[in-house]
Amino acid sequence: MDNIEKVRAKISMYDDEIIKILSKRMDCIDEIMQYKKEKGLPILQPEYEGKKEVALCKKLKDNKYEDEIMNVFRYVVKNAKKYQAKNLFPYNIMLIGFMGCGKSTIAKYLSHILEMEDLETDDFIVKREDMTINEIFQRKGEEYFRKCESNALKELETRQGIIISCGGGMPMRDENVELMKKNGKIVLLTASPETVYDRVKYSNQRPLLNGNMNVEYISNLMEKRRSRYESVADIVVNTDQKPIHAIAEEVVSKLANLD
Ligand SMILES: Nc1ncnc2c1ncn2[C@@H]1O[C@H](COP(=O)(O)OP(=O)(O)OP(=O)(O)O)[C@@H](O)[C@H]1O
Ligand SMILES: O=C(O)C1=C[C@@H](O)[C@@H](O)[C@H](O)C1
Ligand SMILES: [Mg+2]
């Protein structure tokens, strides 16, 4: 064997070791998930991630390959999170609820913490139609927008393992709910009319609220939708006066405890 072949053989041997070690590391993820389940511990522990990064930096200090190895570790951690999410949620997480209840905010947070892709049906429609939601309502009318929502769900029918933040009116149509339930669990986020008002009062991006930006209007529309929202939801999480991470944890633990 010439020298280069010898080195390649060595690399191959190290690859075997890496595979063995990575598999053992993944087994630990299974163990941790099982342990958290048994002890009723929070599934999301974002503070652990920061500590882990610091600990790894310390271990790699003065290592010639510090940057490269650190990058590999980040990828390892990313994939461990993906593996965990895939096991916990082998379906789409469909966030529904009134405007301003926090669907987009929670979807983004969960997407980061679980390494799951997130998608906004409103954004999806804006891209397809090449118009803002306000423009669609003004030029084509609400009924047209509602058809776009159904079409968006049909296009997304085959996707799996994503977090979908649905437009506030999406669950009002039976055909939409059917599509949402096909390969997803429906998470209803709630907030009081006062909270919603506080969160959205300076925005003009929600056509239904333009010219109606007051607690009374919000309260009336919310009441009209309440029973529909509640009847289609697999789980419900109230978001009033709660920080994002607490809402996200509640979503995740309630979903994980579904049969
Ligand atoms: N738990 C929370 N605490 C404080 N502010 C929040 C919370 N959740 C969301 N917000 C803020 O409220 C506003 C509305 O939130 P978000 O856009 O996520 O709502 P949404 O349900 O997606 O609304 P829409 O249906 O109109 O898309 C944002 O400015 C966001 O930063
Ligand atoms: O609640 C609703 O009906 C809506 C909510 C937004 O997400 C947009 O989908 C649109 O403004 C309509
Ligand atoms: Mg949103």
From TrEMBL:
Keywords: Amino-acid biosynthesis, Aromatic amino acid biosynthesis, ATP-binding, Cytoplasm, Kinase, Magnesium, Metal-binding, Nucleotide-binding, Transferase. Its EC number is 2.7.1.71. SUPFAM superfamilies: Chorismate mutase II, P-loop containing nucleoside triphosphate hydrolases. ATP binds at residues 100-105, 206. Residues 1-88 form the Chorismate mutase domain. Substrate binds at residues 122, 146, 168, 225. It is an enzyme of class 2 (transferase). GO terms for molecular function: ATP binding; chorismate mutase activity; magnesium ion binding; shikimate kinase activity. PANTHER family: SHIKIMATE KINASE (PTHR21087), SHIKIMATE KINASE 1, CHLOROPLASTIC (PTHR21087:SF16). Catalyzes the specific phosphorylation of the 3-hydroxyl group of shikimic acid using ATP as a cosubstrate. This is Shikimate kinase. It comes from Intestinibacter bartlettii CAG:1329.
